[in-house]
Amino acid sequence: MQIEYITIEREYGSGGTEIAARLANKCGIACYGAEIMELAAKELHISVAEAQQYEEKITNSFLYSVFAMSQMQTGNAEMLSMEGRLYVAERNAICSLAHYGGAVFVGHCASEALKGRDNVLHVFIRAAEGFKNRRVVSDYGIDEKDTEAVCRRFNKKRAKYYAFNTSKKWDDMSNYDMVLDSSRIGIDGCVRAIEALLE
Questions:
Q1: β-bridge pairing 120-126 and 5-10
Q2: Whole-angstrom distance between the N-terminal and C-terminal Cα of the chain?
């Protein structure tokens, strides 16, 4: 099977975004992360900041999640809350970007947007707490005393968004083809591991 697309979900601070960028650069393909939300916000005529706020507001309601999924499948986005409409817009953006050729997609439930295709590799990047905390301090300038709380907040946000839009658990490793621990094999090791499957 020829892999054309790679989707990456990642724990906050694990280096998933950096791994995606390095992998795309080495393979000569595009890498999309923030661009997905920018396109979705543009489609909905809202700012990126507003889109981020809607992501934060995602509900934990199982019943609403089931309703949202049914509306998405029928293409009836107008019946959805703005949070649901944001996901539909992000899914549209991912599918649109995929038409330009091979790419790495970071976050935004890209694995769900591209499901049904045989040429997609789904990857999850995790790491030990100490590794993530050090990266959050060095890369994002977060105060050391706040690192654990910040990591928990972002991971909870990602888990809620994933569950709301896919009815699956974000940290259920059975959802992914490949799970890598960047604290054990390093950022470069993760890039090499994924690249090896593409050759």
A1: parallel
A2: 11
